[in-house]
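Private note to self, pasted from the team thread so I don't lose it. Backbone tokens:
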């Protein structure tokens, strides 16, 4: 009996060890999740795609960030500095996938909507004011089993004027691939435009990379023609109406009309609805791309789209090849490129030449090789002939590193402004520590120019 008990115990231990080893060898389930937000006006935002492991939370944010001065505090030097709080406004989505089955997984989704309803200005001192924003936040949590490739819909509000129900939609697939539903990047109402299938295919290919976000939004004919909303043109008129109402007790004619219209003019939503109802609107498509090695090929894809409303590209750094690829994309409104420009060369240690992107809406951007110079105040006037011979000189920095240089700074800056009217002339006074750091970084034989 004793030997039998020992044998049973050993076999159980060996069995549990084998099960543990087998469990450890099983790969952790992976998921691909793509979210879409639809608001009451029919505007659509899709992506970016989330790549998640089992039980891992992923986040998608759709909205804007607004900074507010909420207080003041003294720094280490005793200088009073403003305290800034950045508040997110819009929709935030947190997604977790668990319990994978052969045909789907359980999705735990938290949708948080926030809106700044009011900003109160409070006086905290003789010359200091702080802002007190009021934020309305609503949360909804849904836990549901979702089949791979099917859409989970989460309502987020009442239907709008066009009968559109605002909602968050998401689709989940097992592994790294994602099955994007048809028409996910197209308007939810109205007829589709020409070449719609090709455009959707391009957008879907970008979304599958996990580094893209696609927007489909209403663009009024006024905004498409002028480049900005009607409300921006009415702001001065609104300010004039407020000023007149507060300063003039006797009103007549146009002033009376301004006073009556002031509340409506001051409401961007009312102005937008009037603008669209009177002048009509189109659907504009915008793309945001994060940094990735495939950015040039992604630009080649976008060049096949007839037009984009906005294009935002955010690589850590970029070179001439990416700049050249961006010039092939037709952007009607806003083109933003953020990151470190690596398409630059140094000449003689004081002249920096780099390729720069210029976009004059609407249309394709252009490339120019712009130059910027950095000279000590002692060398600046002698370098004027060379500066005049430099093509596309945009900026000149004049550096003063001692008391004598500071005395000559203003005069030298005036001389360069007259000699180089098309360049921006900036002056900078270096402290002894900064001068020593610059010399040390450049080496013992370097002469500060």
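Design output:
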């Amino acid at each position: 009996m004793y030997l039998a008990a020992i044998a049973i115990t050993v076999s159980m231990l060996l069995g549990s060890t084998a099960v543990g080893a087998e469990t450890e060898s099983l790969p952790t389930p992976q998921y691909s999740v793509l979210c879409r937000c639809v608001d009451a006006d029919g505007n659509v935002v899709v992506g970016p795609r989330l790549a998640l492991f089992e039980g891992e939370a992923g986040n998608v944010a759709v909205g804007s960030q607004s900074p507010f001065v909420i207080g003041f505090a003294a720094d280490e030097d005793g200088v009073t500095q403003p305290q800034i709080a950045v508040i997110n406004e819009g929709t935030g989505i947190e997604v977790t996938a668990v319990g994978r089955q052969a045909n789907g997984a359980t999705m735990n989704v938290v949708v948080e909507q926030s809106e700044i309803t009011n900003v109160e200005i409070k006086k905290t001192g003789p010359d200091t004011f702080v802002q007190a924003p009021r934020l309305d936040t609503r949360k909804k949590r849904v836990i549901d089993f979702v089949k791979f490739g099917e859409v989970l819909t989460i309502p987020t509000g009442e239907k709008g004027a066009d009968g559109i129900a605002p909602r968050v939609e998401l689709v989940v697939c097992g592994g790294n691939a994602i099955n994007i539903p048809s028409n996910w990047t197209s308007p939810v109402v109205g007829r589709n435009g020409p070449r719609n299938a090709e455009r959707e295919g391009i957008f879907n290919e970008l979304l599958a990379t996990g580094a893209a976000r696609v927007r489909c939004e209403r663009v009024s004919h006024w905004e498409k023609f002028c480049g900005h909303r009607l409300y921006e043109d009415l702001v001065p008129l609104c300010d004039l109406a407020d000023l007149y109402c507060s300063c003039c007790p006797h009103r007549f004619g146009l002033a009376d009309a301004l006073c009556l219209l002031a509340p409506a003019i001051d409401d961007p939503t009312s102005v937008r609805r009037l603008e669209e109802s009177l002048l009509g609107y189109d659907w504009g498509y915008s793309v945001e791309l994060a940094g990735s090695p495939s950015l040039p090929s992604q630009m080649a894809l976008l060049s096949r789209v007839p037009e984009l409303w906005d294009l935002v590209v955010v690589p850590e750094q970029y070179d001439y090849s990416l700049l050249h690829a961006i010039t092939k994309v037709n952007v009607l409104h806003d083109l933003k490129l953020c990151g470190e420009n690596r398409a630059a060369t140094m000449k003689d240690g004081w002249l920096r030449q780099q390729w720069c992107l210029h976009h004059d809406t609407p249309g394709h951007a252009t490339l120019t090789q712009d130059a910027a110079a950095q000279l000590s105040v002692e060398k600046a006037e002698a370098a004027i002939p060379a500066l005049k011979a430099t093509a596309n000189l945009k900026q000149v920095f004049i550096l003063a590193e001692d008391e004598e240089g500071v005395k000559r700074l203003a005069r030298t800056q005036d001389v360069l402004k007259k000699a180089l009217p098309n360049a921006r002339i900036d002056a900078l006074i270096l402290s002894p520590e900064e001068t020593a750091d610059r010399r040390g970084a450049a080496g013992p034989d370097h002469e500060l120019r």
